[in-house]
Design a protein that fits this description.
The protein has 534 residues and is an alpha+beta fold. It has 20 helices and 21 strands. Helix content is 40%, strand content 22%.
């Protein structure tokens, strides 16, 4: 009877609308279509999935960044930006289908119970996770859980030439997700900060890093935003408050139904922590969103010099619309504009997701990533910086003051094949496993390691032999060509496993062309020449 009434009701609605067929509201038409499928389709349908598909398809007709996420996807999206999650507090890698503990979070749950770097977790509660080709995401779901809950893990620990199984019960706790990957002194006056994302805790992390570096004598700073895909907007405004004078325009947003809103800088304390002294910002083609807000404001106000390659060009403001079931729609409502009025968003055609996704490939094919003269500047989009009236250009993304070409010479097919098999990680893990105590004895600090450790020919020989066992035949010519890259990655991974994440960047930066140019420039008269200072 209930179904009959609903069918009659649907028929009455159709009849009423047919009499006024040119005035059917779009949202009503959508509801009618879903109701018709649900009630009359020949087979059983999953209405929830139909609605989700309809929402996703609708958003795909808009801009490239409006999107829908189901409850699980929403949780995964928000977790890194929230700044913490509840878990056991380890960083790990998968080595031949076994979870290998790289390090434990200082003061975290795993460290407190005695878990050690080099341990292999083979079982979580009743689930064996070793040798079963389990995905990282599935492993993390087992290790993470509500704060205060307990998880039992079985660990294989090698000591004195033998392996023992050790059982631990770990009480989960809040684990911070750091946005500052590294902060160290490059020399006695140059600081370096590597920022990987803009999250809820970014301001506090940057503030801590700046204060620590200043205590160590920092007079000038390299801010590394390479590959930083962004995150929350507000932390970008907040950290700009430490680099610019108070009350400066950091960014403004504006859209069809969103009037212009200016976001102004304000230091966390009485005065900015670093609004004087040389500042170089490192960027590349994957620097996006909040990173571009930060970079654009620093460039617009002539506060520092931007080094690298044109940034991604993501300047659309998404407003979240959460649904009661935990899913969410992120809808673009405005554009981000730098203080000079440059639209950060690169051009796009609505509904053409493929062309938008291929933009970086197109840049590569057109030579923009390798040759400065291949970058196309549009005169109508030229503006001047706000203090020194330097010419800069809009058109999508932030173009650097000093271009650094992408160097692909070391990226041979052999290197890609070895990397794809996970051989470099596997070898680094096994090398550290066998030499951890000796390396720590030889190199008391990570600085000692960076200066004194070298990947020798015997290590490379062992690496190539391991790759051959994994089905990657040695190509001697390409191996020689990629040797500097093999050495750098291997040394960085070994250093990270023995010490911490910043060690990797200390090693990598000696190789990285963008860092090398940033460091050269910050110590050169060219810095003042770019900013036209006497």
């Amino acid at each position: 009877m209930k179904k009959l009434l609903s069918i009659i009701g649907f028929g009455v609605m159709l009849t009423a609308l047919a009499a006024n067929q040119n005035k059917i509201p779009a949202n009503q038409k959508l509801r009618m279509a879903e109701a018709a499928v649900a009630q009359f389709y020949v087979d059983t349908v999953n209405e929830d999935r139909l609605v989700e598909t309809a929402i996703r398809s609708m958003l795909e007709e808009l801009d490239p960044h409006s999107a829908y996420s189901n409850p699980e996807e929403t949780k995964e999206l928000n977790e890194p930006l929230a700044g913490n999650f509840s878990g056991i507090g380890i960083s790990f890698n998968m080595n031949q289908d076994t979870l290998y503990v790289i390090s434990t979070v200082a003061g975290g749950p795993s460290e407190r119970v005695g878990l050690l770097a080099g341990d292999r977790i083979i079982k979580v509660n009743d689930s064996i996770i070793a040798g079963v080709k389990m995905r990282n995401t599935d492993i993390m779901k087992r290790l993470r859980g509500p704060k205060g809950s307990k998880v039992n893990v079985s660990v294989l620990r090698r000591s004195a030439g033998k392996a023992d199984t050790v059982e631990f019960t770990i009480t989960r706790a809040d684990i911070p997700i750091n946005s500052v990957d590294a902060a160290y002194m490059v020399d006695n006056k140059t600081g370096y900060i590597r920022l990987s994302r803009f999250s809820a805790e970014t301001r506090n992390e940057i503030e801590t890093a700046l204060k620590d570096l200043k205590k160590k004598g920092m007079k000038q700073l390299i801010l590394d935003l390479v590959d930083n895909g962004g995150g929350y907007m507000q932390p970008a405004v907040e950290i700009l408050g430490e680099f610019l004078e108070p009350g400066r325009l950091a960014v403004y947003t504006e859209g069809r139904n969103s009037p212009r809103y200016d976001h102004m800088t304000q230091p966390h304390g009485i005065r900015p922590l670093f609004n004087d002294g040389r500042l170089v910002v490192m960027v590349n083609q994957y620097t996006a969103s909040s990173s571009e807000i930060t970079t654009g404001a620093i460039q617009d106000w002539d506060r520092g010099v931007v080094v690298g390659r044109r940034t991604y060009g993501k300047g659309l403001v998404q407003r979240p619309f959460p649904f009661p079931d935990g899913s969410m729609m992120r809808l673009t409502v405005a554009h981000y504009y730098t203080p000079t009025g440059r639209d950060i968003q690169k051009p796009y055609n609505k509904g053409d997701q493929r062309a938008y996704a291929m933009d970086i490939v197109d840049r590569f094919n057109h030579g923009e990533l390798m040759h400065a003269d291949s970058i196309k500047y549009i005169d109508s989009l030229k503006v001047e910086t706000l203090r020194l009236n330097r010419p800069i250009y809009g058109g999508g993304g932030i173009s650097p003051d000093r271009f650094v070409p992408l160097d692909t010479a070391d990226f041979t097919k052999y290197y890609r094949d070895v990397t794809a098999k996970g051989v470099i990680n596997q070898y680094a893990i096994s090398y550290v496993d066998a030499n951890r105590k000796e390396l720590k004895r030889r190199f008391k600090t990570d600085d000692d390691f960076v200066k004194g450790f070298d990947v020798d020919s015997s290590m490379l020989h062992d690496l190539y032999a391991r790759a051959a066992k994994e089905g990657v035949a040695l190509n001697e010519e390409q191996a020689r060509q990629s040797e500097p890259l093999f050495k750098m990655i291997l040394k960085g991974l070994i250093g990270r496993d023995i010490y911490d994440q910043p060690t990797y960047f200390k090693v990598y930066n000696e190789y990285d062309p963008i860092f090398r140019e940033a460091y050269r420039l910050i110590n050169s008269p060219e810095y003042d020449a770019i900013l036209r200072k006497p």
